[in-house]
Amino acid sequence: MELQWVAYLAIPCFQISNLFQIIKIYRTHSVQGVSLAFWWLILIGLCLYQVFAVVNGITPYIVSNCVAIAMNVWYLILYYKFRDRYQWRKWR
Q1: Dihedral pair phi/psi, residue 35, rounded to 5°
Q2: What pTM was estimated for this model as a whole?
Q3: Contact in structure between 50 and 62 (CB atoms under 8 Å)
Q4: Under a CB-based contact definition with an 8 Å cutoff, are residues 72 and 64 in contact?
Q5: Most buried among 8, 29, 71, 76, using CB within 10 Å?
Q6: pLDDT, position 43
Q7: Cα–Cα nearest to 18, from 58, 74, 89
Q8: Is 78 in contact with 25 (CB distance < 8 Å)?
Q9: What is d(CA 72, CA 46) in angstroms, rounded to the nearest whole number?
Q10: Tens digits of residue pLDDT in 2-23
Q11: Pick from 2, 19, 25: nearest CA to 67
């Protein structure tokens, strides 16, 4: 329990790192170079980790995973929204 503060520092770092990628895609409307498999695996891993956190009643992880899952879903929505623009530019 003495290193639990490390988790409390790591959680915002992870959330903020996702946010920067989402902002970049939203501003540029480009998903060029984005690995779709990576983001799907992250989402699956977060959902599994959420089950673990709920079963064990770890409230900070439940909250942070909800935010992370929402951000990853948002990321995937943006990916599918803007992927056609990349394909169009690629063949133009």
Answers
A1: -90, 110
A2: 0.76
A3: yes
A4: no
A5: 71
A6: 93
A7: 74
A8: yes
A9: 9
A10: 777 787 787 788 778 888 888 8
A11: 19
